[in-house]
Write a structure and sequence with these properties.
123 residues, rod-shaped, single chain
Length: 123
């Protein structure tokens, strides 16, 4: 005959095991997604590199795409270890465009400022 305490203990053990399995599935899915995003961003960077002579802002876009891909790979590594990515990685992911590289003539969207955006000379 099984005691009620043993049933409750087994039930709690089963629930804990199920929660651990679900947690593992979530972290695995997050890691796969981050890896897929990183691959897509690397491809985007390659396309923009090849269009550098034709498309204004392409080089800057490629730099940002590679930075974002790097952050996604770091996030995937953290997820595989059942951890959240560090704050600086999450910040890059939240704001992948970030500021344009220092000294760039492009705005944060990787575009040249329009004539309307340029300061007008006093006249």
């Amino acid at each position: 005959m099984v005691c009620m305490g043993e049933d409750a203990e087994q039930s709690a053990h089963d629930r804990a095991a199920e929660l651990a399995r679900k947690r593992d599935e979530v972290f695995t899915a997050l890691a796969r997604t981050a890896e897929a995003v990183a691959r897509a961003e690397e491809e985007s960077a390659d396309v923009h590199d090849s269009a550098a002579g034709l498309l204004p802002g392409a080089v800057e876009h490629a730099v940002r795409a590679r930075r974002f891909a790097e952050a996604e790979r770091a996030a995937a590594a953290a997820y595989r270890e059942h951890r959240l990515p560090p704050d600086e990685v999450r910040q890059v992911i939240r704001d992948p465009r970030g500021p344009a590289p220092t000294g760039s003539r492009y705005n944060s969207e990787g575009q040249q400022p329009s004539e309307v955006d340029k300061p007008q000379a006093a006249g």
